[in-house]
Amino acid sequence: MKIIKQISDMQRVMKIEKQQGKKVGFVPTMGYLHEGHQTLLKEARENNDIVVLSIFVNPLQFGPNEDLDAYPRDFERDEEIAALRGVDYLFYPTVEEMYQENRTTIIKVEQRVDVLCGKHRPGHFDGVATVVMKLFQIVTPDTAYFGMKDAQQVAVIDGLINDYHLPIDLVRVGTVREEDGLAKSSRNVYLNQEERTKAPYLFKALALGKLQLEVGMEVHTVKQEMEEYILLHTGYKAEYVEIYAYPTLQELKKVKEEESIIIAIAVKFSKARLIDNIVFSYSKGE
Amino acid sequence: MKIIKQISDMQRVMKIEKQQGKKVGFVPTMGYLHEGHQTLLKEARENNDIVVLSIFVNPLQFGPNEDLDAYPRDFERDEEIAALRGVDYLFYPTVEEMYQENRTTIIKVEQRVDVLCGKHRPGHFDGVATVVMKLFQIVTPDTAYFGMKDAQQVAVIDGLINDYHLPIDLVRVGTVREEDGLAKSSRNVYLNQEERTKAPYLFKALALGKLQLEVGMEVHTVKQEMEEYILLHTGYKAEYVEIYAYPTLQELKKVKEEESIIIAIAVKFSKARLIDNIVFSYSKGE
């Protein structure tokens, strides 16, 4: 595995790999790799000739009140994981390298961001889209891997790829879960023992919502029922329960056959704020 | 010469050309090709294996009060010129092809646009940057050719290429002039006979400004002298006379040796609004 820190070096090696007809899979991350990232790397390794992992904590996607400096970092551990997962190139630039010159533009995301978590993080997805566009131009992957735990981020990247006709396949990798259904997250350690037993009800609520839509219940009724279910089983009022078309994240008035749908939840426990979602293709049951 | 209308076709042929190691020169235009465009095509033809010309009147760079529909078009004539100039691929997409899906993002230009013509056309350069990024991803040129008549546009594209690390050489092609110095422009036909004799004083004023800077005169004094000179010789008050660092388009307090400088003028005659500029590397004379 080669560790590369310069943009020009990365572009040079990728040009050679591409000229040799190599298929390149890319996993962009902010490091501190967890099981979710490892699933992305596994998928990338199985389906490409060359796997590129990037680790870059992108200041542009942090708000003024979000603590960029406190973002966890452990490069040595990340390096070990990357090597074990068969990464060929680990791209690890500094902030100065990525934002060398005075930035003159930003990619402003105008759709898919005024809902879910985007509503509370103005500018966050502009920062994501801008850095991902930079990384795509540096790495020139054939395929890019993103985790569906961050379904809204995946929707934004999907829009970016379409808008600029990027010749990149976007692979959405499913959320990794504990046996009881709880989505894996570094934030789960902040749950106390009692909360940990209740947290799986987020995923159960998502499953309930899906079933109810499939038997023909109206969107707003399903949301209500899910909210009640979450309150009953966790003792917490959900921060949001939302149902949208996916990946457009537009309102669903009436659900159509084969429409792709996301149900998403956020619940604030005493210390941990948990999010979860499911995306599925709608088909009406009997 | 092949005329291509589909993005996917264009991407397919360019992929093949690039795999064969061909060097690709690209001239993006809105059509209605004039002598300036022909100079770009000539430069591109002399320095590349493959020349791509795009003709696309981009709605995104027109303001609500700018008449997109009245923009002059003559595809048959353009096609002839392209063939004569040795263009290999003429990319000629429809608006529906270029903006197929709901656009989710725009490239917002935050620097280099609050001066000169950008001041009066809010959003114009966002539209330019967005469509040029799309075209760059479709054509994947090694070199792109732009005319310095639109020096601010060139500055914006320069920023775009740096921001996203695009592996593209930007070639700035000098303004084509009449023998008396008047910059060639389709708008020159709107000058009456008397105005036509006075219009060359724009270029003379630029030359005067350059000389005055080189003998050490202060920026604000040079601007004043140029304004007086234009008023005296044309009878019109200049809309603006500006002097900036180029391509950053930032204020120049003190001029430094070898600094790249732009002097730019706009003058509104009875019917025609003319613009002109010179960009040069500063060196103090004796």
From TrEMBL, chains A, B:
It is an enzyme of class 6 (ligase). It catalyses: (R)-pantoate + beta-alanine + ATP = (R)-pantothenate + AMP + diphosphate + H(+). The active site is at H37 (proton donor). Keywords: ATP-binding, Cytoplasm, Ligase, Nucleotide-binding, Pantothenate biosynthesis. The reaction proceeds by a bi uni uni bi ping pong mechanism. Homodimer. This is Pantothenate synthetase. It comes from Sutcliffiella horikoshii.
